[in-house]
């Protein structure tokens, strides 16, 4: 199929899960150039490819059905572009499918699913915690960004469950233009942050888009409007800032303003 705008499904796994979203954007630009593809660029002094990712992937999380859209200067063959991009992709980054979409279309995420492998000895407690979480009418989390607040994430929880056979935690979450719940927040609420399987990682296995669900069930749709919020106490804000500072310090151990120290 020929078209000027393509929507790709791709996976980002293995060590590449530690590549930040901004680094992934730069990586994709280099791939487009090396593949000699006629991509469109933005205007201005620092033009960049006209590329849109549907939803950035949290650092350290693997993605198996991620979405990116690229605009081109002329009609291109989807299969040819897919092959050329894969020929330039680093290990861990794989473009799975390419589809032509209208130039005015934009990928708007509707729903995501995360899977978190668990240690077998914590399954019973995890099941009880999931049931307790879903029984609550409001589930509050503390957030500092973009502004300090308490946020009720209960409307974003479509389904939270434990698969005993694997064992694995499944987080089925709504995504709206005003926000969503985060996997790391839910692991803390379920007391599972330190109970994941050794060596395993969180995986985002599904990114569902609005234009891919043309006739949704009216009883099974994302929440409308912003989530309920409450102000945070100054002491809580200070504690959260200290925690973030400690995490940054631990992550940046051995680094200098000029970059990491290599001995």
**End-to-end CA span:** 52 Å
Number of strands: 14
Query: So what's the overall shape?
Result: globular
Question: Could you spell the SSE succession in H and E letters?
Answer: EHEEHEEHEEEEEHEEHEE
Largest sheet: 9 strands, mixed
Unreliable spans: 250-263
Content of β-strand: 25-35%
Number of domains: 2
Count of helix runs: 5
- What is the C-alpha radius of gyration, as a whole number of Å? 21 Å
Binned, the helix content reads 10-25%
Query: Overall mean pLDDT score?
Result: 89
Structural class: alpha+beta
List the helices and strands and how they pair.
Blueprint: E1 2-12, H1 21-34, E2 51-53, E3 62-77, H2 78-88, E4 93-100, E5 109-117, H3 123-135, E6 140-143, E7 149-152, E8 157-163, E9 168-176, E10 179-180, H4 183-189, E11 203-209, E12 229-230, H5 234-251, E13 255-256, E14 259-260
Parallel strand pairs: 3-11
Antiparallel strand pairs: 1-3, 1-4, 2-3, 5-9, 5-11, 6-7, 7-12, 8-9, 9-10, 13-14
